[in-house]
């Protein structure tokens, strides 16, 4: 029994994206489109996973998706919700820093702010009143099991705690988009469970909410994502492996009927195998 | 006590052992001092001579001189911090970057070159003392501050950007507020240079007094005991400034965990 869904407006479009650092081209000709997925009777956001072997350019792609690095060529487009729709379509704009939440691989935080202060800072542009902000921050702290450490500084936290703070900060600050670079590394089983729940919270919190994450845990990616991209070095004409990263495969888990299932099935396992061989070949 | 551990590299000793080792060293230094000054020909003054030197200094108003030196140092430091911070914080602004770079490179200019122009500009000797110190401190201060700013990882700046900070907010949050504890540490590191220069600078104006003047005077009399006592005093005052700054940093900024 397949889950019914519809694909609507484009929510993310990456067009001929290339990035080089100095002379060195890191990723080239990255193209993909993600659309707003709509399901009946449920808020269904989008969860996109980017897989690929180390050094293939996942983090580099993410820096472009969040507007932190200017593309050498090509562009990253998101809908511009500040403008009125024309012909039933939201006008697009190039992504700018701050439009998209970003949690980097190292879970960077403000070193001089306590957890509580950091989260309040993330809400500074929300336009809410002081008491509302406080309530909201406390709610997150409790939900994510951080209320005991709320008055500590980042260097007094464990890696997993820092990461959760980094995620909440972005949830509070940015709009519908959130990019997470390896959000599950360094977490224990319990933490991963929490992070999964928060993925669900974000995913079903709003129709337009979109999470893009990278991971080296392929099984987990097939369980969480509804769309998986594999980054790698493409085969060149002479059969040898290239040296510039790009997207080598795309798996649409919605179309495959694997997305949003509640348990890990044989279908997932098959997909994992296929992804593994795609990764190993690139 | 396991003495083998005392020579094992990277070994973390118990507090008691570490204390014993310190005591041992102090005892050895004292013993060496006593033995080498026991005979006829001495290189160092004897502990008694040093004590007498110290007593003489005290009766000549050592405390007032220390006060004078500290006051000079404080004046120079305050001016220099303000100047250096303004220049260092302008580093991220492309238009002003050459200025902060150039200021840091000026530290290779020799002291005499700068004092020459200062004497033309400034006539009051006390002001002169302050400004010579200010210029020197600032050049080193700026250099160290720039190193701190350049060391800030890109991730910290990107983190602020991803939280919708505009560029000025990043400057304020990450560079100014986020590294304020480093400013105190930079000050502490560079104050040592100033403290050393104090002696030279204070000789510009003998009437104003200060530790530098005391040392210059003792020099004339070839009074070893006095010189030795003064050196110890200068060292101790310097070390206590160092200690005060370090403790201040750690108690003001709980997150400041380096050294
Ligand atoms: N600032 C930089 N300057 C030059 N080269 C860089 C820079 N940052 C990354 N690279 C190079 O770009 C390539 C891709 O790096 P990236 O961090 O995007 O890989 P990744 O897929 O995220 O790897 P991992 O899974 O290990 O995190 C690497 O070869 C890396 O050496
Ligand atoms: Mg990476």
Question: Outline of this structure?
Answer:
The complex is a heterodimer of chains A (282) and B (259). Chain A is α/β, with parallel strands linked by helices.
Task: Record the SSE blueprint.
The complex is a heterodimer of chains A (282) and B (259).
Chain A (H helix, E strand, L loop, with lengths): L5 E16 L2 E15 L7 E7 L5 H8 L7 E7 L12 E3 L6 E3 L11 H8 L7 H14 L15 H15 L3 E4 L8 H15 L6 E5 L3 H7 L2 E6 L13 E7 L13 H15 L2
Parallel strand pairs in A: 3-8, 3-9, 6-7, 7-8
Antiparallel strand pairs in A: 1-2, 1-4, 4-5, 9-10
Chain B lengths: L14 H22 L10 H13 L2 H28 L7 H9 L5 H11 L3 H26 L3 H9 L4 H11 L2 H23 L8 H11 L2 H29 L7
Helix pairs in contact in B: 2-11, 3-6, 3-9, 4-6, 5-6, 6-9, 7-8, 9-10, 9-11, 10-11
The complex binds adenosine-5'-triphosphate and magnesium ion.
Characteristics of this structure?
heterodimer; A: 282 residues; alpha/beta; Rossmann fold; 6-stranded mixed β-sheet; 4-stranded antiparallel β-sheet; 7 helices; B: 259 residues; mainly alpha; MetI-like fold; 11 helices; binds adenosine-5'-triphosphate; binds magnesium ion
The end-to-end distance of chain B, rounded to whole angstroms, is: 28 Å
Q: Give, in order, the helices and strands of chain A.
A: EEEHEEEHHHEHEHEEH
What form of chain B results from the Cα inertia axes?
Answer: flat
Q: State the CATH architecture of chain B.
A: Orthogonal Bundle
Domain module tally of chain B: 1
> What are the low-pLDDT stretches of chain A, counting only 5+ consecutive residues below 50?
none
Which structural class do you get from the secondary structure elements of chain A?
A: alpha/beta
Rounded mean pLDDT score of chain B: 88
Small molecules (ligands, ions, cofactors) in the structure = adenosine-5'-triphosphate, magnesium ion
Chains forming the largest contact? A-B, 27 and 21 residues
The total domain count of chain A is 1
What percentage of residues of chain A falls in helices of 4 or more residues? 25-40%
Name the CATH superfamily classification of chain A: P-loop containing nucleotide triphosphate hydrolases
Report the C-alpha radius of gyration of chain A, rounded.
Answer: 19 Å
Provide the CATH top-level class of chain A.
Alpha Beta
The whole-number mean of residue pLDDT values of chain A reads 90
Helix content of chain B: over 70%
The rough form of chain A would be described as globular
State the major sheet of chain A. Answer: 6 strands, mixed
């Amino acid at each position: 029994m397949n889950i019914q869904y519809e694909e609507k407006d484009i929510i993310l479009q990456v067009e001929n994206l290339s990035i080089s650092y100095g002379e060195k081209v890191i990723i080239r000709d990255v193209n993909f489109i993600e659309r707003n997925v709509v399901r009946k009777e449920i808020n269904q956001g989008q969860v996109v996973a980017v897989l690929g072997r180390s050094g293939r350019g996942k983090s580099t792609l993410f820096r472009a998706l969040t507007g932190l690095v200017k593309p050498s060529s090509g562009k990253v487009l998101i809908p511009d919700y500040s403008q009125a729709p024309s012909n039933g379509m939201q006008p697009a704009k190039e992504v700018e820093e701050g439009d998209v939440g970003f949690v980097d691989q190292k879970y960077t935080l403000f070193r001089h702010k306590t957890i509580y202060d950091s989260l309040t800072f993330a809400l500074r542009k929300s336009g809410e009143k002081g008491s509302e902000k406080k309530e909201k921050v406390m709610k997150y702290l409790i939900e994510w099991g951080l209320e005991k450490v709320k008055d500590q500084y980042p260097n007094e936290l464990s890696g997993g705690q820092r990461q959760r703070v980094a995620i909440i900060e972005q949830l509070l600050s940015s709009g519908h988009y959130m990019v997470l670079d390896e959000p599950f590394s360094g977490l224990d089983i319990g933490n991963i469970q929490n992070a999964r729940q928060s993925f669900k919270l974000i995913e079903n919190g709003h129709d337009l909410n979109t999470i893009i994450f990278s991971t080296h845990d392929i099984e987990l990616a097939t369980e969480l994502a509804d769309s998986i991209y594999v980054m790698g070095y493409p085969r060149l004409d002479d059969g040898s492996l290239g040296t510039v990263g790009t997207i080598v495969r795309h798996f649409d888990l919605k179309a495959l009927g694997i997305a949003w299932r509640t348990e890990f099935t044989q279908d997932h396992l098959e997909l994992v195998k296929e992804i593994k061989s795609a990764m190993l070949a690139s | 006590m396991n003495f083998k551990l005392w020579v094992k590299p990277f070994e973390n000793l118990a507090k008691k052992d570490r204390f014993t080792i310190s005591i041992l060293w102090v005892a050895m230094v004292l013993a060496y001092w006593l033995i080498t000054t026991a005979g006829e020909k001495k290189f160092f003054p004897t502990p008694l001579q040093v004590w007498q030197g110290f007593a003489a200094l005290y009766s000549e108003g050592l405390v007032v001189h220390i006060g004078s030196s500290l006051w000079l140092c404080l004046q120079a430091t305050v001016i220099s911090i303000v100047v250096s911070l303004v220049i260092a914080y302008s580093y991220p602004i492309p238009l002003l970057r050459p200025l902060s770079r150039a200021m840091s490179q000026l530290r290779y200019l020799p002291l005499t070159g700068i004092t020459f122009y200062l004497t033309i500009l400034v006539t009051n000797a006390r002001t002169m003392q302050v400004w010579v110190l200010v210029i020197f401190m600032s050049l080193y201060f700026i250099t160290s501050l720039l190193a701190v700013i350049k060391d800030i990882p890109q991730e910290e700046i990107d983190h602020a950007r991803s939280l919708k900070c505009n560029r000025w907010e990043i400057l304020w949050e990450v560079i100014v507020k986020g590294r304020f504890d480093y400013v105190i540490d930079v000050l502490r590191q560079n104050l040592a240079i100033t403290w050393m220069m104090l002696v030279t600078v204070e000789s510009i104006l003998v009437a104003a007094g200060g530790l530098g003047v005391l040392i210059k005077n003792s020099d004339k009399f070839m009074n070893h005991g006095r010189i030795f006592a003064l050196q110890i005093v200068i060292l101790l005052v310097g070390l206590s400034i160092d200690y005060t700054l370090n403790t201040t940093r750690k108690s003001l900024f709980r997150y400041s965990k380096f050294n």
